[in-house]
Write a structure and sequence with these properties.
The protein is an alpha/beta fold. 18% of the residues lie in helices and 35% in strands. Helix 7 packs across helix 8, helix 11 packs across helix 12 and helix 11 packs across helix 13.
């Protein structure tokens, strides 16, 4: 039968009340209840038998305070002890406020422990039994070193308990201690949130670890932990950190704002995570090193500061149905001899490469998706990676690259919308490609660099911005069943010394089927271009669609290609007359005329043996699209040729894609090749500001600019460079390299056309094609241009030419309905032939 013992100050509690808690405990039998009156009781209470201490008036009314210099306010030496609704104050934050001895047992319910830790010690070996502790709806606050320390053979359970304001680690488990924590709230610790050492065990459910100064959850040695439906928020280091041979299993957990990596797995540790998310990590989302392993399923990693997933050493990472989004570096980065397996994973919008594999690492990708990254997949390891049934879309640079000396097998890949080449097989790389598609890339569909000899079968390349297949000098390989459609450049380009074998390849709807450099040695077996057999070296008649089925160039084409054919001599006065006939551009005409006079004077001084004044012929053309920049640039070259200041005066028009390489080491040679084509004439760089993007990072455009500056110096008298683009952006371009400002000393501003000038452009186009605007149509056309929005899509002269084209198309539809149109009706453009403003 339970006996009640009352503790009250003198004069309270009635007859038989005890004056100290210790007296009541010593008088109690196992199972008795000690009821304590409100107040602060300064003593060291020793519970050596199974008794329950409770506050008479509920939580917060009773405080047990350790005497100054005493180690603990409450010491538990017996089994089945309990404290209800009691606050315990320690005398020193670095010492235990509540101490539980080996073999003892304690339940704390609705209690607070302040200014010291709860320390529970268990037997050092299993034969000594266990120490059992339960905390329900408690609060531990203001301790130093640790808020709760479980050591040895301890079995503990926390329910709805808060640990806060600890100058050290929130909860420490060591030895063989085990803790089952449900709805634990741990916050504001200077050390780790929860730390496991030795062979301790943790089960964490529906809990929050927030604001730790170091790792949120730290596992060392041979510890184990499971965590479900829990959150780790803003830890000062890693969110979850495993070292030694630790094991952890996470389910439906959220890790946010880690100052270091979200998940760290080192040495021989093992991590399993399912349905978890890691966001806004200060380093990697997942870092696996040493011989550690990590298995993630249905997880998300968002906005990592470093690579979202980084594997190094001999680490192994297996990710299935995971998503990576955002991040300042790679999506997945494998180095050393690491192995990464990605199955049905998605990687999007990372700043560098979606999947990067370097050194001797191995990657296996199956059914994955990479979108919106700088580069898609980069294989730089010779150990042999595989990519199957994987899609790469919308990359700003290369889609998939097998780098120098690397090895990879690609099967069923799809590369779409790459900002440079779709697929690159670099120097000396080993690659096999089985099936798949490359479509809508800005560069070549596939590039095979010097010394590479890939085996490519069944690849379909559609709408590449440049060549379908580009083989550099000395490249080779076998290409079987490859299809190239709608290429703007030669579908197949073979450079000097390259000897690829093309077998059963099909070329359709391309500008040209095969382009070769002198010394190329392609072999074609059963290949066709638009149904016509494709051969090498034997001239043949062009097919009906006008596309050649052979690569043999004409003599005149070859002469023009190597620059041997010189342009005709032109008269300076005729050229100036041609300039002044251009519609509008009054300010530009005046500037060009002044330049011509200046250069005439320079030329005459040189002829008289006088030194020429310092003069930079390079220009910046600043203006919106369609304002005549290319037209004036072409005339400028011809004017300088007529003045004897350029050998040829021809124009070579390029943009970023013609100068900037698609992989490391390609930009310099590519820029040099474009520059050399312009020697003796004008190199016109359209949208030049794209070579110096606002956030350049590792952009290859800076290398192109540096190469241009050097070439302009080396060939200062044999070339003119004109950089063109939007007025505001050209300032950034000139400021991107110190050498540009000194070489581009003059800017010509191309102003937008006025409505009347746009009408004149339409009338000029009409005259060229033998059309005439009626007076009513001309009046309506003025109104159409006045009402036309001058936003981003406005093309100035280009818009005028589009209006003319649409007008002639509408006129053709109208005239086609006439039974016998007169010559006047055939050439007349009437008001209702103009496109309606709403259709623009």
């Amino acid at each position: 039968m339970t006996t009640r013992h009352t503790v009250a100050p003198k004069g309270q509690g009635g007859r038989g009340a005890y004056r100290t808690i210790g007296e009541a405990v010593r008088a109690a039998s196992p199972g008795d209840l000690v009821v304590i009156a409100p107040g602060t009781w300064t003593e060291n209470v020793v519970l050596d038998r199974a008794v329950v201490l409770t506050a008479e008036h509920g939580r917060g009314s009773v405080v047990i305070a350790a005497p100054p210099g005493e180690a603990a306010a409450v010491t538990v030496d017996g089994p089945d002890c309990a404290l209800h609704n009691i606050t315990v104050w320690g005398s020193d934050a670095g010492l235990p406020a509540v101490s539980v001895s080996p073999g003892a047992g304690l339940v704390l319910e609705e209690c607070s422990v302040e200014g010291g830790r709860v320390q529970v010690k268990g037997p050092e070996d299993e034969e000594g039994g266990t120490t059992a502790v339960v905390l329900r709806r408690c609060r531990l606050e203001g301790a130093r070193l640790a808020g709760l320390h479980l050591a040895g053979g301890v079995r503990a359970r926390l329910e709805d308990t808060a640990v806060t304001g600890v100058d050290g680690t929130g909860v420490v488990l060591s030895g063989t201690a085990s803790l089952d924590a449900v709805r634990l709230r741990l916050e504001r610790t200077t050390g780790s949130g929860v730390r496991l050492r030795g062979r301790s065990r943790l089960r964490l459910t529906d809990s929050v670890l927030a604001g730790s100064g170091r790792a949120g959850l730290l596992l060392e040695d041979a510890t184990e932990a499971t965590a479900g439906e829990s959150r780790i928020e803003t830890p000062g280091a890693a969110g979850v950190h495993l070292t030694g041979s630790a094991r952890a299993e996470l389910t439906d957990c959220r890790i946010r704002g880690a100052a270091a990596s979200g998940l760290v797995v080192q040495e021989t540790a093992r991590l399993s995570a399912s349905g978890c998310s890691v966001a806004d990590a200060g380093a990697n989302g997942l870092l696996v090193t040493g011989s550690a392993e990590a298995d993630l399923a249905d997880c998300r990693i968002d906005r990592s500061t470093f690579s979202a997933v980084h594997l190094a050493g001999a680490a192994v990472g297996r990710l299935a149905d995971c998503r990576v989004r955002g991040g300042s570096e790679h999506g997945v980065h494998a180095t050393g001899e690491a192995r990464v397996e990605l199955t049905d994973c998605g990687i999007a919008d990372v700043a560098m490469t979606g999947v990067s594999v370097l050194e001797r690492a191995v990657a296996t990708l199956t059914g994955c998706r990479v979108a919106g990254s700088a580069a898609g997949i980069g294989i730089g390891s010779p150990a042999g990676s595989t990519v199957a049934d994987t899609t790469v879309t919308g990359t700003r640079e290369i889609g998939v690259q097998v780098a120098k000396g690397a090895a990879a097998a690609l099967a069923g890949i799809r590369i779409s919308g790459a900002g440079a080449a779709g697929l690159v097989v670099d120097e000396g790389a080993e690659a096999t490609v089985a099936g798949g598609r490359v479509e809508d890339c800005a560069g070549s569909g596939a590039v095979v660099w010097t010394g590479a000899r890939p085996e490519v079968t069944g690849l379909h390349i559609d709408r590449p911005g440049k060549n379908g297949l580009f083989l550099a000098e000395g490249a080779g390989g076998t290409f079987t069943g490859v299809e190239v459609t709608r290429a703007g450049f030669p579908a197949l380009h073979v450079a000097k010394g390259a000897d690829p074998l093309f077998r059963h390849c099909r070329i359709r709807d391309c500008a040209e089927a095969l382009g070769t450099d002198e010394g190329a040695e392609p072999v074609l077996e059963d290949c066709t271009a638009d149904g016509t057999p494709l051969t090498f070296g034997t001239p043949a008649a062009a097919p009906a669609n006008g596309r050649p089925g052979t690569c043999a160039p004409s003599a005149s084409a070859a002469k023009a290609a190597d620059g041997a054919e010189e342009p005709e001599e032109e008269n300076l006065e005729d050229l100036l007359g041609e300039l002044h006939e251009l519609v509008g551009l009054d300010r530009v005409k005046q500037d060009v005329g002044s330049l011509v006079k200046l250069m005439q004077t320079v030329r005459r001084r040189e002829e008289a043996g006088l030194p020429a004044p310092p003069l930079s012929r390079h220009l910046v053309f600043a203006g919106n699209p369609g304002t005549g920049k290319t037209t004036v640039a072409r005339l400028y070259g011809r004017l300088l040729k007529a003045l004897g200041l350029l050998r040829r005066g021809h124009l070579i028009e390029v943009d970023r894609t013609a100068l900037v390489g698609e992989y490391v080491g390609h930009t310099g040679p590519k820029t040099t090749a474009a520059f050399n084509r312009a020697l003796g004439g004008v190199l016109f760089i359209d949208e030049a500001y794209s070579l110096a993007p606002a956030f350049a990072g590792n952009d290859f455009g800076t290398e192109a600019v540096a190469t241009l500056v050097k070439l302009m110096e080396d060939h200062r008298d044999d070339v003119v460079v004109i950089a063109a683009g939007y007025p505001g952006d050209m300032h950034r371009f000139i400021g991107s390299n110190p050498g540009l400002a000194s070489r581009f000393g003059r800017t010509l501003l191309f102003e937008d056309y006025e409505p009347a000038e746009l009408v004149s452009i339409v009338e000029y186009q009409a005259g060229q094609h033998r059309y005439e605007l009626t007076p009513t149509a001309r009046t309506e056309l003025v109104g159409l241009f006045e009402a036309m929005p001058r936003g981003e899509g406005f093309g100035n002269g280009r818009s005028a030419r589009q209006i003319f084209q649409e007008t002639t198309e509408r006129q053709a539809q109208r005239v086609a309905e006439l039974a016998a149109p007169t010559p006047e009706q055939l050439i007349s453009l009437e008001a209702h032939d103009l496109p309606h403003p709403a259709a623009r």
